[in-house]
Structure formats: structure tokens, C-alpha cells
Amino acid sequence: MDKTLNIIGGGMAGSEAAWQAANAGIKVIIHEMRPKVETFAHRTGNLGEMVCSNSFRSDDHEQNAVGLLHWEMLEAGGLIMQTAHKHRLPAGGALAVDRDPFAESVTAALMAHPNVSVSYGEITSLPRDGMWIVATGPLTSGALAEAIRQETGAEALAFFDAIAPIVYKDTIDMDVAWMQSRYDKGDSPEERTAYLNCPMNKDQYNAFIDALLEAEKTVFKEGETANYFDGCLPIEVMAERGRETLRFGPMKPVGLTNAHDPENKPYAVVQLRRDNALGTLFNIVGFQTKMKYGAQKAVFKTIPGLENAEFARLGGIHRNTFINAPTLLDQEMRLRSRPNIRFAGQITGVEGYVESAAMGLLAGRMAVAELTGESLPPVPETTAMGALVSHITGGAEAKTFQPMNVNFGLFPPIEGVKGGRKGRKDRYKAYTDRAKADWQAWLGQAALDAA
């Protein structure tokens, strides 16, 4: 067998898969269509480019499932997490990064690796020979998506994903806005003041909701159904669910005190998070939108403190394609009808940068084991990695399969640990303690088997 691993797509999953395989001594070719073939959301040809948020979400590896996934990836020598920590920005308890230097570093690391090469150009069909990983993400090209549909004999599922706008900080009125992380969370003064907050009273909030509901929105093509992932709903869709929905979601006023008027509690708060190391760009947290560009400017400028805001990027919406993984993939993430092809990343039905990179890490390691004739032990379902891969390769109900973030609901229960809200802290700590021990044992066994 040719011991070269071909990877289609140089995003989070493809980059991580390439890194894992290359470090195991496998020659890797990353096939990336950018910048020759552009997408709606990408701006560069860099590997590992972040197209939506600049956050990898919570970094708490004792009480949060995604933070545990961070930890597991670091333990496995993951490129994405190592690079994220190098380019970390203050974000309270979250792991946010300076997106351009992050992608540039991922690209530089892979390009410098002696076992990695990059071929720029679009792959339009599923190859029959060699070993491949399809890690094309939510913006899989139309030609390749059609090839996948033809091969699987089923319609690829799709939902619509939205991105949030980015504002120049020097255009924000700091006589109105103030810097504070929710509940002053963070280990340093910089972390505890990582977010920029714009307060609203009740009248301002209601006027904002009215403007949001009346704004001109993107119209979908005939026959397209707007199935949104709940973790990335456009703010207009949230507002349509009830006038108070946003106030109990991304605009909740809890854990914050207006530095300009500490005696009066805001009715709602719009938060912005730093988007680059210089602190010159801030993205509006949770404000993914399908409003047209002109409407965005008009509506967002009704937010106190943003009346004169200028935008480095406006929000938008794009199609996000994924396969019905529980039906199509085996336990090794291989396409049942074409076992020389693995899938990894968001196209498998995981959601988020971290989850995508994690599935790339596993796909890369599984491919290495197959190419070298080694046996890789099953990933324990008690780990964040194992819980995710088990979910997408058979644990989820195929008929209702939708994109999923990692969460403790995917983990096998622990006997004797208190349930309900009161026992949640102890339960989550028990999950993470068990996962860490089992993940380290798995890494050790995998290393022994490869020796």
C-alpha cells in the first residue's frame, strides 16, 4: 500500500490530521483549494483560518466538556491547541486567539514539516486509490458535495451558519461602554476586563428588538430550508422566538456592573470580545446575523456606544454541509462504501473549531495505524474524544442527526455521583477526572502498540 496520506481541506480538522500523521513519520499531502477557489467566508489561503468566532470557548478542563477536549488535544501533542495558547487573547475563562497570527503559525508549522506538502487546487471527486481524509468543513465545494451525494446515495444534510460582525474599537464610545468580564471572571486584571459592554435600558432594548425584526434579511433560494444549528442562531431568529429571548441569551445583563452608572442595573447588555492582539478589533458576541449589510449598519448603530461604529467585517450567512455520519461511517471514521476514505471535522456532524480539530486528530491517528499495519485501541467513550467519535459513528439517532458540540450528556454516567443541578459541580469533576485518566492510558497504550 502507498503509505502517503492525502487530506482534502486545510482547516482545523485537516491541519490537525496532517500534524498527527506527519509526526508519526507518514508523508502527508494537504489538498487545499484556497486561494485558487474562494469561499464565502474565508479571506486568505492560510491553513487553519478561523472564519467565524475567534474563540475556542471555555478553557476550564475540570468543569466544562470543551475545556476537557482542549486538555486531551494538548496531551496528544495537538497543533491547533498548542498554537491557540501561543496566540491567546484575554477573554475571561474562554480561549480566544488573535486569528491571523494563529492561522499564519499553523501554516508555517505545517509548511516547515519535512513530511508535509501542500497541493493547491480543488478536488472534485472521491478518489478510489490511496488513503484519504475528507476534512472540507462546512464550506465543502459544490462539486465535491455532489460527488459525496452520488457515492452515499443520500442527500447530504445541510443547515445555515452565520457569522458575527467585527467593529473597530476606536469607533466605540467609551463614555458609554465599559470593560468587564462577566462576574469579573479571569486570573488577571486583563482577563477580568476582557469584554467591552454596551448597556441598554428597557426602552432601548425594545427599540432594538423592533429594528431587528423589521430589518431586511437574506432571502433563501427556492427549495432551500433554513435549518439552523442552535449554537449559532442568527440574532433575528432568536428575537422571533420572543422579545425576551436575547435578554436571556447573548444580551443577558447578569454578572456586570456599569462602570459609568454603577447604581443602575442595565436591562440588557451587548458584549464585544477582543478579536486581535492589538486590541483594535472587537467582535459582537452572539450577534451572528442574516441581515443585509445596509440593515446591519442601521440596526447595530442603535446600540448605545456603537452609534458611530465602523465595521471591519459585517456579518453574513452561508450554507453548512454535513453527512449523516451514523449511517455512513464505521467506527474508524471510514466511509463504509469506500473504506480508503475517512471523514473528519464539521462535515461529520460535529460543531465547532475544537470538535472539528479533535476529529481531525483522531482521523489522522487512525490513518497512521492503518498505513503502518498497527492496531489502534478503541478510544474510550469516557473521554471527550471518545464520546464525540462514538456519537457520530453510531451513538446518535440517524433519523434526527444534527450537528453537535461536545457536552457531558454524551458521556457514560458515573454511578454513585449526585445528579441534578446541586450535584453538577461534583459530577462534572468526576467526568473530567475519569476522562483524563482514561485518555492518558489510551495514549500510552497507542504508543506501545505503535512501538
Structure description:
With 451 residues, the chain is of the alpha+beta class. It has helices spanning 12-23, 65-75, 79-86, 99-112, 142-152, 189-192, 202-214, 235-240, 293-300, 325-328, 353-372, 384-395, 424-450; strands at 4-8, 27-32, 55-58, 88-89, 94-97, 116-120, 131-134, 157-163, 166-168, 178-179, 195-200, 268-274, 281-284, 311-313, 316-322, 334-335, 338-343. The strands form four sheets. The protein has a six-stranded mixed sheet with strand order 6-2-1-7-17-16. The model has no long low-confidence stretch (mean pLDDT 90).
Number of helices: 13
> What structural category do the secondary elements indicate?
alpha+beta
Biggest sheet descriptor:
6 strands, mixed
Secondary-structure element pattern, one letter each: EHEEHHEEHEEHEEEHEHHEEHEEHEEHHH
Task: Specify the oligomeric state.
Answer: single chain
Mean pLDDT: 90
The global form is: globular
- How are strands sequenced across the largest beta sheet? 6-2-1-7-17-16
Helix fraction, binned, reads 25-40%
